[in-house]
Amino acid sequence: MLSPGAVLFFTLLLTASSLGQRTRKPNGSTSPISTIQAQVNFSAQQFAGTWLLVAVGSSCRFLQEQGHRAEATTLHAAPQGAAMVVSTFRKLDGICWQVRQLFGNTGVPGRFLFQVSRARGPVHMVVAETDYQSFAILYLEQGRKLSVKLYVRSLPVNDSVLDVFEQRVREANLTEDQILFFPKYGFCKTADELHILNEVPR
Questions:
Q1: Alpha carbon 60 to chain centroid, angstroms
Q2: Which residues contact 14 (CB under 8 A, 6 or more apart)?
Q3: Residue 128's closest CA among 82, 174, 157, 165?
Q4: H helix intervals, the chain
Q5: In 51, 85, 96, 97, which residue has its Cα 20 to 30 A from 183's Cα atom?
């Protein structure tokens, strides 16, 4: 049985819905993320590199209850053709882990799809706003539950960036009380080969 820390770890990777819950998509309805516009003229090459997770806006009850277990989290993005390989680095029980996932091409720059092997369905990701040099705001949706993530290249975070993120959270019908802020220290840069979970198809 996974520890609460482990559950939180994997929930954060796919933060879009609460654990064990899936809302079926009604016929003919529009998914929330389909209305989110991707960054204009999105450049995967400029987006590539390391990002630090600052905050997540989500209605996931588990995240709200277990937020005190959050660990500093790093994302590394590497373009693979029109797709994006995303590596997430985070400590679990004091050990640095790396999880590699392939967010596939959807035909729209800045919009990606991760095919989850589990029953909760695919994860949609949109890079909605970024200046490539300092911040990026990403949306993720799974099971029709939307979350908003703020990443930065370095700390501290500019107040104007936080304002933009909070506005995006409100536009997603979330409240500031549903924002979980992450530690600003203790980031992992690497993980040994025994602590790498590779979900990228070979």
A1: 13
A2: 114, 116, 120, 123, 140, 142
A3: 165
A4: 4-13, 44-47, 61-66, 159-171
A5: 85
Distance separating the N- and C-terminal Cα atoms of the chain: 29
Tell me the C-alpha to C-alpha distance, in Å, between residue 147 and each of 58, 96, 193: 5, 25, 30
Work out the number of other CB atoms within 10 angstroms of the CB of residue 152: 21
Complete DSSP assignment for 70-109 = ---EEEEEEEETTEEEEEEEEEETTEEEEEEEEEEE-SST
The pair of three-digit structure tokens given for residue 95, joined into one six-digit string: 């050990």
CA nearest 184: which of 162, 167, 160? 162
Per-residue burial over 121-135, b if 16 or more Cβ lie within 10 Å, else e, is: bebbbbbbbbebeeb
Q: Where in the chain are the domains?
A: 4-17+33-184
CATH of 4-17+33-184, one of 2.40.40.20, 2.40.128.20, 2.30.170.40, 3.40.50.2000: 2.40.128.20
Distance CA 145, CA 123 (A): 10
**Token duo for residue 88:** 């997430």
Q: Could you count the other beta carbons within 10 Å of the beta carbon of residue 63? A: 22
